[in-house]
Specification:
This protein is mainly alpha-helical and about 425 residues long. Among the domains are: about 110 residues, no CATH class; about 80 residues, no CATH class. Helices cover about 65% and strands about 5% of the residues. α14 runs parallel beside α16. The protein starts with a helix and ends with a helix.
Length: about 425
């Protein structure tokens, strides 16, 4: 008798869900250019199914009748919508819109595709930021790009480099990384231009879409490309962490690109955390500060003259800023090199104030950041009265007993510090 009752519930539920589910699945597939409607229908059916099952368990027997029917109907809806969803997956205009001409015509008659493009147009402002002043920057005769985005449909029929570039950003913002990657690649192939900010965006798409290992494979499969920007990024992504700075400095490319590369790889908290850890292991706790001093030369040179000199390799300066400036507080326009560099002044002031044997900032700097392995010792034959006042002189500064003797590069590093400090203070 129980089996009969279950069959009695299944038949009407199946009929109802079969009719409504098929109609709903068809409509959801046709309207899929407007959004993941089938996904919403699946979720809605699951929610109703879950609620029905919970009430079925909790309610008294005499009140369960309605929820038995609802549970079975919802279950059938989930199954039907899921089937439609599988066919709909990875399509542009729905399974039927991509494969059946009459459905495609129906979508066009309803202006659904145009509506989809209207939805994408909400992202145009962000795309415009990516390509501000692109007309002046590109060497492939791009004209009126922003106007083109608003008045034409490069997504449907990309032909020119700028069509593919706009496509790349629109697809990326819409979450379709495969098509974004494809459009970026077509842009590079047609234009032959590897602009810094565009190529950085492309590599980010590539890494988010297929992983870091695929980025390595991408570079390895393009050994014949000698473009300076491409070579720089290839070096960055193929270098071990401990060698990345030295490998960039060895490149035979534009010095301004080398400086940019150093700012780019150091605009990462992980880079500095690794230096802190390595310095602690090597008993060199100021390694990260010394590195900031050394690299400040690259920072100052790039930000004072280099950025303007490679303006032709940049589409949008604001995008470049995001690559080199600390994004924790982007309005300060401060590199992480500068951030760690500016902590030095406080340390020097404390040393000068608290140690009577340190007479100047320079002496404090040389001891703290450029020490050699040798310390000041008393020479033979020194009288007891001379112990307290004995010192040696190096780089014009006095160093007393048991203080660190500066390394040979101490004077040069001090000069770099002063020049960089003056630059940062005048920003």
């Amino acid at each position: 008798m129980e089996t009969k009752k279950i069959k009695d519930y299944i038949q009407p539920a199946g009929k109802l869900a079969g009719v409504l589910g098929t109609v709903g699945g068809f409509i959801g597939d046709v309207l899929s250019p407007l959004g993941p409607i089938l996904t919403y229908l699946i979720y809605l059916s699951i929610v109703i199914l879950t609620i029905s099952i919970v009430l079925l368990v909790l309610l008294p027997t005499e009140k369960r009748e309605m929820f038995k029917k609802t549970s079975l109907t919802s279950l059938f809806f989930v199954i039907i919508f899921s089937v439609f969803g599988q066919f709909n997956k990875n399509t542009d205009n729905g399974f039927m819109g991509d494969n059946l001409e009459f459905v495609s015509n129906l979508q066009n008659s309803l202006n659904i595709i145009d509506e989809k493009l209207d939805n994408i147009s909400y992202q145009i402002d962000e795309v415009d930021e990516k390509i501000t002043k692109i007309d002046e920057k590109l060497n492939v005769e791009f004209d009126n790009l922003s106007e083109l985005i608003k008045t034409s449909n490069p997504i449907k029929n990309p032909k020119t480099p700028k069509d593919f570039l706009v496509n790349a950003y629109l697809f990326r913002n819409g979450g379709d990384l495969n098509k974004s990657e494809e459009s970026f690649n077509r842009f590079f192939e047609i234009s032959g231009n590897y602009k810094i900010d565009v190529f950085a965006d492309f590599i980010e798409v590539l890494r988010n879409n297929k992983g870091k290992n695929f980025v390595q494979t991408y570079y390895e499969s393009r050994q014949d490309i000698n473009d300076d920007v491409f070579v720089l990024f290839k070096t960055i992504f193929q270098s071990k962490k401990e060698n990345i700075i030295s490998n960039i400095k060895k490149l035979d490319i534009n010095i301004n690109l080398i400086d940019f590369g150093i700012l780019y790889v150091t605009n990462n908290g992980g880079f500095w955390n690794d230096l802190v850890s390595y310095g602690a292991q090597e008993n060199n706790i100021n390694l990260y500060i010394k590195t900031a001093i050394e690299l400040s030369e690259n920072d100052v040179r790039f930000r004072s003259i280099g950025m303007d000199e490679i303006n032709y390799l940049i589409l949008n300066k604001e995008n470049l800023n995001k690559l080199i400036y600390n994004q924790a507080n982007p309005y300060e326009r401060k590199t992480l090199i500068q951030f760690y560099f500016t902590t030095i002044q406080t340390t020097l002031s404390v040393l000068v104030k608290n140690d009577p044997r340190i007479n100047s900032e320079k002496a404090a700097f040389l001891q703290q950041y450029t020490p050699s392995k040798n310390k000041v010792t008393y020479p033979e034959g020194l009288s007891i009265d001379e112990y307290e006042t004995y010192y040696i002189e190096k780089f014009g500064e006095k160093f007393y007993f048991n203080q660190n003797i500066p390394a040979q590069n101490g004077e040069a590093l001090w000069k770099t510090y002063i020049e960089s400090r003056n630059f940062y203070n005048n920003l």
